[in-house]
Amino acid sequence: MRHIRIFDTTLRDGEQSPGVALSVPQKLEIAHGLARLGVDIIEAGFPITSQGDFECVNRIAREVKGPVICALARTNKADIERAAEAIAPAEKRRIHVFTSASRVHLEYMLRKTPEEVLELSEAMVRYAKEFTDDVEFSAQDVMRADFDFVKRLYEVAIAAGATTINLPDTTGYGVPQEYGALIRRIRDEVVRGRDVHISVHCHDDLGMATANALAGVENGATQIECTINGIGERAGNTALEEVVMALYTRRDHYRAETRIHTREIYRMSRMVERYTGMVVQPNKAIVGDNAFAHESGIHQDGVIKNKETYEIMNAEIVGRQAAVLVLGKHSGRNAFRKALAELGFNLPEEQLQNLFLRFKEIADTKGALETDELRALVESESVNTPQLFSIEQLQFFSGYGMLPTATVRLKTPKGEVTTTAIGDGPVDAVYKAISEAIELQPELELYRVESVTGSTEALGEVTVKLRLGEVLTTGHGVSPDIIEASARAYLDAVNRFVAGQASKHPPSLDEVQAKGAAS
Ligand SMILES: CC(=O)SCCNC(=O)CCNC(=O)[C@H](O)C(C)(C)COP(=O)(O)OP(=O)(O)OC[C@H]1O[C@@H](n2cnc3c(N)ncnc32)[C@H](O)[C@@H]1OP(=O)(O)O
Ligand SMILES: CC(C)C(=O)C(=O)O
Questions:
Q1: Which residue, among 426, 366, 424, 363, has the nearest Cα to 395 in the 3D structure?
Q2: Scanning 23, 122, 400, 467, which has its CA 20 to 30 A from the CA of 60?
Q3: CATH no. for residue 370?
Q4: Domain shared by 172 and 303, yes or no
Q5: Cβ distance 301 to 335 under 8 Å?
Q6: Are 466 and 496 in contact (CB under 8 A)?
Q7: Which parts of the chain span the membrane according to its record (predicted)?
């Protein structure tokens, strides 16, 4: 298999992301991480940019062992000297000299003729060679440049000693077939079998950076320039994790391999996310939160039966936890049953079906449930208490300057009962309305409300203790709405009270209500 070099430019092009400025310790830690990841080349910075950037590249060159340490330089002597000085302590060092290729860059930005750019490029590659044998040459914006000029530029760069020629699609203008064809022509018409690496550097302005880089590999490139999480100027660069995993997962197709220790990928992604403050989108390939999660019932059912139904790679291979089944409104019974079994609940089928309906009802309004929320739901609903009283409807009003008022419609053994009450707050109003509907006046000994996972979006879990005469009963209720959870907890306690009496000497409801009313 062909070896593809991974040239990581997180610390140079990646740091050019608007709003990102990494400190020296952060860059050093990222560089050490990149060495552990197994990248071949680290582009550590652009030393002429600032004293801070110089020092950073210099410290990385001193301290980070393994990869080639590379510094960027424009086609001028001052840049090259600064780059050479910064990387001098490295065991393996590279200077990356760049110019521009497109007419618009030459005319408006460099304000030079093509002949001047050719001359300067040749002279500056030669100059960089005085400091290191390993010189890379790039001409920005090759996709929008005249091919004959691009060809001449890279020919002079190779003649001057460039050992790697990089073809940057600086503006992300290329499409895979076109970019691949450019790389092929460079291979056939410029490199012509010489010992020079062809490198790809693609930007993601049209969302094609990864596809373009891979098209380059298919057509002769042996180096990919990329960044962790695809960060970089504007829409970013080719994402390291994407090209590496594409080459690995589709090695049957590309017949090429990298030296990346893939199990380090996720850790690096999180480190770069944390230090740059650039949050990885949930649906980002390989490293996004959802990349190995399944929510819909049909997918979950398939994955439970055989992971290969919906997974082309294992999460573990990129250093993540095994794929997770997210329990939300799209989930099915098989995934629900499995999740409960993993939590240690093996419920009878009928109970599981009822619980599933309640779960769907909650997930429909709240979204996916976390493990602790699922556990709370099961614990509050799975105990086989006969539902003598249950909520049909619940409505309440409260607010500053208003009388808290609640109306409940309950299913009771006497049929549907609707009552309204005023209270000191919405929960008090609901409890008074329920008490009237069930014709019992329990004393509330304890009322506790908690957010199951500690966030405001979490399920609310309410625990109550009610005293009915001599008997103390506990009830639990969960719901995204804490007033509803409170009503459920109250009725749960009442139903348990009734069930507890029934297990000894079944009283009639009239007896229970008479007892409750008397207490
Ligand atoms: C596609 C890329 O990612 S390229 C790398 C981009 N990275 C950066 O720009 C890093 C941050 N940059 C900086 O700190 C500054 O721009 C510096 C230190 C590099 C230069 O700063 P200044 O000297 O103030 O120049 P300024 O940024 O205003 O303009 C850039 C100059 O570089 C010239 N230039 C641009 N590319 C090249 C090149 N490849 N070779 C030679 N000169 C170049 C421009 O023509 C312009 O020259 P001018 O001042 O004669 O008009
Ligand atoms: C310096 C070059 C390689 C670059 O970053 C670009 O053209 O995008």
A1: 426
A2: 122
A3: 1.10.238
A4: no
A5: yes
A6: no
A7: none
pTM: 0.82
Annotated binding site for Mn(2+): 13, 201, 203, 237
Ligand 2: residue of 98, 121, 167 to mutate (most ligand atoms within 8 A of CB) is 98
CB of residue 117 inside a 6 A radius of ligand 1? no
Retrieve residue 160's tokens.
């001057």
Q: Residues 426, 396: contact at Cβ < 8 Å?
A: yes
H/E stretch holding 176 reads helix 176-185
> Roughly how many angstroms between the first and final C-alpha of the chain, as a whole number?
84
Between the CA of 431 and the centroid of ligand 2 the distance, in Å, is 68
- Indicate whether 371 belongs to any domain: yes
CATH of the domain at 79: 3.20.20.70
Structure tokens at 426: 């919405």
User: Cα–Cα distance between 58 and 83 in angstroms, integer?
Assistant: 9
Domain limits for position 337: 293-381
13 Cβ below 6 A of ligand 2: yes
Residue 446 covered by a domain: yes
Neighbours of 348 (CB within 10 A): 10
Q: Give the type of residue at 118.
A: L
